[in-house]
Amino acid sequence: MKLIIDTDEKTLAVEQAGEEPVTHDLYSREAFAEISRQWVRTGWSLGYYRGFTWMGLPVLQLPDDLVRFQEVLWDVRPSLIIETGVFQGGSLLFHASLCKALGGGRVIGVDINVPATLWEALERYDLSELIALIEGDSASPEVLGEIDDLREPDETTLVLLDSDHSRAHVRRELEAYAPLVSPGSYLIVADTIVQDLPDVPGGERSWTEDNPAGAAEDFLAVHPEFERVADSPRAAADDLPDAVSYWGGGWLRRRAE
Predict the structure, then answer these.
(1) pTM higher than 0.90, yes or no?
(2) What is the pLDDT of residue 26?
(3) Which CATH number fits domain 51-254: 3.40.50.2000, 3.40.50.150, 3.60.140.10, 3.30.70.580?
(4) H/E/C letters for each residue in the chain?
(5) What is the pLDDT of residue 153?
């Protein structure tokens, strides 16, 4: 595919092999979607998302997604956020700082490997009292048992899945954590963008099928109690935000009972 931007004529031409070119107004929603898709793909391949920290710790997320996540927290006001895949702890601090700002809530982080250095880093912050860490396979009975021990039955719970991005593992996580998600709250599948990265530097051909987005599709097909929703519930232009996101299509909300 070719994208031809003409700033003089203010047009964007999209050329697909064997098809007639399609031309959009350069400042249209359609042009924004096409340009943003390639910007996100190029940025991912260059590790753009690695350049951001929260309170000094690497967060490894696209800032757009973090702002949208904040919007969801504002609406749902969860008393418990569970995140699988915590890396170096920046996202845990991000969630905990929002909980503190909202006047309530705490965070459970799960990772297959939780180094002592991560605990040491988190303990330098007052927010560490709002964070619990569990080491192990996020979809294992052992880890789920530990979460159950830490969780109160009536807590409003939101879950963010951001660990192993293989389709099989994310599917296991979705089944494991869906029962914990409160009505009206979210089960968020991170990095659904993987399905759009098999041909970029650093991507893998297998990602065409082996990706979190496919797991979300499989899950929704048999779980009518969940629905896919827009990723930015308070955005005025609700057909725009998904264009700049690593989580597009991964915002699953449990229907209110």
Answers:
(1) yes
(2) 97
(3) 3.40.50.150
(4) CEEEEECCCCEEEEECCCCCCEEEECCCHHHHHHHHHHHHHHHHHCCHHHHCEECCEECCCCHHHHHHHHHHHHHHCCCEEEEECCCCCHHHHHHHHHHHHHCCCEEEEEECCCCHHHHHHHCCCHHHHHEEEEECCCCCHHHHHHHHHHCCCCCCEEEEECCCCCHHHHHHHHHHHHHHCCCCCEEEECCHHHHHCCCCCCCCHHHHCCCHHHHHHHHHHHCCCEEECCCCCCCCCCCCHHHCCCCCCCEEEECCC
(5) 85
